Amino acid sequence: MIVFPGIGLDHPDLGSEGDIHGRYDERKILHRMSMPDAEAFARLAQRHHARGGKVAASCSGVLLPAMAGLLQGGAATTHWRLSGFFHKLFPQIRLDTKRMVVESHGIVSAGAAMAQMDLMLYLIRKQIGRELADLVMSYLLIDTRTTQARYQVWEHLDVPDDETARSFEALIEASLPDILSVRQAARQLHMTEKTLARRLFKASGVTPMTLIHSVRMRHARRLLELDELTLDEVAQRVGYANATSLRKLTMRMAQVAPAAFRSSATGTRSRG
Known about the structure:
Layout: E1 2-4, H1 26-34, H2 36-50, E2 55-58, H3 63-67, E3 75-76, H4 83-89, E4 94-95, E5 101-104, E6 107-110, H5 115-127, H6 130-140, H7 149-152, H8 154-157, H9 163-175, H10 182-188, H11 193-204, H12 208-226, H13 231-237, H14 243-254, H15 259-271
Parallel strand pairs: 1-2, 2-6, 3-4
Antiparallel strand pairs: 5-6
Helix pairs in contact: 5-6, 12-14, 12-15, 13-14
């Protein structure tokens, strides 16, 4: 088995060291893929697979079996930030970045960052057995994650680096629990709803309502991690009637129940 953990999108020749956003620039990714070592590894994956060997890859490493044509017509996952690039360059691959690990056509792919751990656990479970995989998981204190969705949401929970977006989010935050409407916010920012929506989409890539949900989600997460209020009280603090409405928010934004944020924070504190 050959395992590719990544191809190094922070390669010094790309000029993206320390820049988490810059390393996913499409031109830099294409440059990295065209480097001799990346092309050599893609050929190695192709030859190994042709001889009946198994190929596994995670994060940007999934680019290598894709370059080798090993995933054509098959399914795969990768870092969710690469999804747009993958859809454009490899349209015949059925990409599902909500999943942590996908096996298709004898190729095992995994998503972002800690998904490399998920990949290795998956391979241990497949090659040796579940008992050993569970033992490793318990020693490393790893949760059983099947989706990247709960991590994708944080991209939209970061305040965009744009004055209009920051002002809009500040207005929404200050209005909690009585949420301003988009029209009211636009009026306070001295612009039309259409102009506000256009500027917010340019800055964040999402609609005003999605940003409103993001503000509520961010505030709810902080309150849930403090673990000092009931779910109904947290819901009311972010402008919802009850815990059921709060659960709909967290399921829509992160695909997890509110309690997941409490258990995650408790586990982090106890391990520290």
